[in-house]
Amino acid sequence: MPPTIVRSDEECEKLNKEIKEYKDENAKVEKKESTLLAQDIMKLEIKKIRVIVGEEADHVYEQENKKSQLQMSMEEKEIQVHKDVLSSEQKAAEEERHFCQGNYRKELIKLKILKLNMKAL
Predict the structure, then answer these.
(1) What is the predicted pLDDT for the residue at 97?
(2) CB count, 10 Å around CB of 108?
(3) What does the radius of gyration of the chain's CA atoms come to, in whole angstroms?
(4) Which residues, in sequence order, are CB contacts of 15 under 8 Å at separation 6+?
(5) Is the dihedral of CA 74, 75, 78, 79 positive or negative?
(6) What was the pLDDT predicted at 3?
(7) Residue of 26, 45, 44, 22 lying closest to 34 (CA atoms)
(8) What pLDDT does residue 11 have?
(9) DSSP letters of 28-60?
(10) What is the pTM of this model?
(11) In 24-47, which positions are buried (b, 16+ CB within 10 angstroms) versus exposed (e)?
(12) What is the pLDDT of residue 81?
């Protein structure tokens, strides 16, 4: 026959109280673990968001850089077009000067011929 354990009401109450304390302590530990887990999940989400924000910031920087490059390129093209226009105008002016100089020489020759004709008379 196995020995039987006889417990008094006081012992049962004491054991029930200890069981309740362990359950309360266990609930506190579970709550703390749950909170720590939630914190860790939030930290991971924040880290992920920081990575995404960093990538987006890099993308924005690249786009701004491209915009600046395009603006500089457009300005350089405008300068080149203006330079080409000025060059064309200079060439046209040079041709006009050359044409006028030729006419001037022709007129000088005519004038000399007229002077010689006038002297001869």
Answers:
(1) 95
(2) 10
(3) 51
(4) 7
(5) negative
(6) 56
(7) 26
(8) 86
(9) HHHHHHHHHHHHHHHHHHHHHHHHHHHHHHHHH
(10) 0.52
(11) eeeeeeeeeeeeeeeeeeeeeeee
(12) 95
Angle at the Cα of 107 from the Cα atoms of 105 and 113, rounded to 5 degrees: 105
CA–CA separation, 28 vs 40, rounded Å? 18
Residue ranges in the chain assigned as alpha helix (H)? 9-120
pLDDT at 120: 83
Cα separation, 106 vs 98, in Å, equals 12
Give the separation between CA 64 and CA 72, rounded to whole angstroms: 12
pLDDT recorded at residue 119: 86
Residue 42: what residue type?
Answer: M
pLDDT profile of the chain (121 residues), mean per 10: 65 91 94 96 98 97 97 96 96 95 94 90 74
Instruction: Tell how far CA 118 is from the center of its chain.
Output: 83
Tell me the C-alpha distance between 6 and 12, whole Å. Answer: 10
Q: Tokens 């300005």 belong to which residue?
A: 75
